[in-house]
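To assess whether the prediction recovers the assembly geometry, we first specified each molecular entity separately, as shown.
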Amino acid sequence: MSAAAATGRLLPSLPRSAWIVLLSAVTAILWIAFAGQYTLPHDNDAATFETINDIREWIDANRNSNIILVVFVTGIRTLITAIFNVFLAVLQGLTWPGLITITAALGLVIGGLRLAALTGLGVLAFGVLGLWNASVDTLALTFTAVLLSLAIGIPLGIVAGRNDRFLAAIQPILDTMQIMPTFAYLAPFALFFLIGPATAAIVTMIYSVPPAIRITALGIRSVAPATVEAATSMGSTARQLLAKVQLPMARQTIVLGINQTIMMALSMVVITALVDAPGLGKDIIRSFQKNDVGQAFDAGLAIVIMAIILDRLTSRASERVDPARRATRPTPPGQTRRFAIVGLVASIVAVAIGTFVLGGGDFPDEIRFTFRGPVNDVTGWVTFNFYFLTEAIKNGVSYGLLNPLQTILTSAPWWLVVATIGGIAFLLSGLRPAVIAIVCLLVTIRIELWQHSMETLTMVLVATGLTLVIGGAFGVLSARSDRFAAFLRPLLDGAQTLPAFVYLVPAVALFGPTRFTGIVAAIIYAIPPVIRLVEIGIRTVPVAVIEAATAAGSTPRQLLWKVQLPMARPALLVAANQGIILVLAMVVVGGLVGAQALGYDVVAGFARRDFFGEGLAAGIAIVLLGIMLDRITQGAGTRQSTAEARPAVARRGA
Amino acid sequence: MTNAASATNDSSSTPTIAVRGLWKIFGPAEHKVIGTPDADLTRAELLAKTRSTVGVRDVSFDVSPGEVFVVMGLSGSGKSTLVRCLTRLIEPTAGEVLLDGEDIGKASSARLRELRRHRFAMVFQHFGLLPHRRVIDNVAYGLEIRGEDRATRHARAREMISLVGLEGHDNSYPDQLSGGMQQRVGLARALAVDPEVMLFDEPFSALDPLIRRDMQNEVIRLHHEVGKTMIFITHDLAEALKLGDHIVIMRDGAIVQRGKPAELVGAPADEYVADFVRDVPRSHVLTLRWIMRDRQDDDATDGPEFSADTIIRDAIGAAIATDKPIRVIADGTLVGVVDRVQILTAVAGSGGAP
Ligand SMILES: Nc1ncnc2c1ncn2[C@@H]1O[C@H](COP(=O)(O)OP(=O)(O)OP(=O)(O)O)[C@@H](O)[C@H]1O
Ligand SMILES: [Mg+2]
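The predicted structure of the complete assembly is given in tokenized form:
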């Protein structure tokens, strides 16, 4: 709305469509005239990369002498590492029978027998899959990040819930923290905090603090104003108001925030394997390096199980504290106490057995089950028998979409690309986004990653296009058919609790390690929120409007194209925005499984010391790409709705 | 007919609450309007000019000890804003509020809390109960925050719960009670702190009519039993007439008329008030003083005698029983007479104003 108005004001004489045609024509002519000139081919030894390598040398040399580095960097690193070690020692000290029993006991107290079975067997599965130690590492790291996130997020959330100015001030910072692809800031933090669990916990926090802050603030803010006023009118102090009214009433929301924080932390912790964080992520990366899908499957499964356990425990806990439930489904008071006693006794016995009978030993090797063989067999069979199909899809997309687009972007003069993207940003979203987009591109040129950025952009655009087409179709279907929606809902719910990394496994199984694999993973990853947003957009068109259009004699098809889709436009734009951000996050992760360009640069930066500078610069380039794409697609009045839609969808980011 | 004197108390004791020149303006121009010519603009004009809304406009009144003082007006007329300014839940833009002579506007935040804890209590339209606390802990909340121990406050809370007729519901949660019962909790909570002044902001508008009537009777009963000073906000004229010792009518933030119930019905100050009172059964509100005529020589002098303050309805029986005009007496002297013509006119609902 404002963007359109601005555009209209600045381009007074022609309608917008005419400008689009004109712009395309001029671009095409210039491309034909200048293709192959003014390009910026990639150079692995670019000066920027060397400079960053030098900075790294300096930091490494002065790590123990420079006072700032010692106090902040080494101090923080030591503290976080200590917290991690405490968690690890506790989890290990509980021994495997103890940990299984305690998790089951928690399930029993929070959700009853069925949840107890789910959580207990789930933890048992870590051992059976032969991933006990890696799983405990991942848990310890997740708990470290969650503890720190909540220690920072809940107090800030309380302040933000009570202070409008503070909320407004941190809102854009939180936005940025959530759209930045994880991959991008691994290297800078590793530069300061070295590789290892401390860096892993810090980068994870960047990702998991925003929901803790946002949801706590939301909880405080959604306490009915009438209640706050009543308590104030009776003379409550600010502290009494917080402790006796706002916090108790926001309790359920805050527990929900803890759930989100845990889920986001888990999905991130897995990726931090790249900075040498211990845990399941490492197993996945190792298997990808050996191209052993079966082994990756085991680790992926363990992550999924862990996600489900943590999600069920915390979401059931939040239901339990829901005051509305009290009236409808009260838990018999005696039962909770009985379960608690049973759980406590069983846990103590199990820990004692683990410690004194088993001597704190590892999970026994005899109890093993692995999907490695069968999965590799199936993968081999699929690869063999459907070779023509997967190959056809891969080649179709590669030759039909990826290669031509990549050729255009990399062979066009850089100034033409910058001007065209700027022009598109201006037409879609207005002047400010256009300026931001152009600045992002110019910085990319300055850090000498133009060609790789264009290659990554190609993958992002193709993957986003496919995501929107497929996700849009599913979204429309599920908006129009309640049965289809009911069928899809558990799948979407499930998909939303899985850490991003897991999506690579099936993609690799089907398409092997290629550029296309990252794209497939990105599509699988980004589709669920797109389906959801499209469905919501269409379903929230007011009934009265639908009735009026039907009464006027519209066919269902006319209803869709002439009423529902146009009216759902804001939601569709949000879907595009979300889709593109999620796709970018995942496409760069594809660097692990054969994709080139920025994602691979990041991976290489961790693998080889002389590539560190290039990897870090690639991280910056990814951020720039993300900011640019976010601003361009934020267009026409969607800012508001994006901010609202984000918390619900944000957990999907990687 | 609007006269300040009739709204102020008739006795000579100091008012419990005195409001002087109170203003509340919402918006960017909050402090730039009063004292300038803009202050005379209508609400709509001011909004257009300064993007600021007048919530309360230069309001003054006195509330005597023990009376029920009703503020009424249509939605948006500024009633809620006014009552919140009294305890500074909304900070007034200008003017004074005196509680027993103490200027509340000058109170420090600690003193203000003290006043809110001990001297005022408020009952809200949407109850404002704490959903996570049982009824007894809701009622005890005011005592809890001023530091009373659990046994004391629960004993007091139990007493209040039975006073409002909710025995046996101590351990229920608010969402397990009906709307009327929830508002009884609100009442009990306000009474529990034994306040000097009770403020009611449309406490019964969210309730259905039968429950509302019950609750009104409840307030009347409590007023008799505990004798608190009450300021009662409503947009329901019947409620105002039923409860109010004095009534003020607000429009666009300002007071347009004040008086006893009969004065409003008998002599509406303007069209706005007249519209309000049009459907009120006049014979139920007006006294004989409002319809009497001067005695003429041919009037019989031995008709029934009634005080001038008798409600018309109560004189109908006597008027029917005799042909003779009723003699209206005030302070022992004859001030006028009323015959069937006047009574029938009043019952029929037209005329009757002096
Ligand atoms: N916080 C606020 N900010 C801006 N304007 C306000 C605010 N609170 C009230 N107003 C305005 O002040 C005017 C008076 O509102 P108030 O709530 O006092 O009316 P009311 O008489 O209580 O109405 P109702 O019967 O609907 O409760 C209204 O025009 C309202 O829009
Ligand atoms: Mg009101």
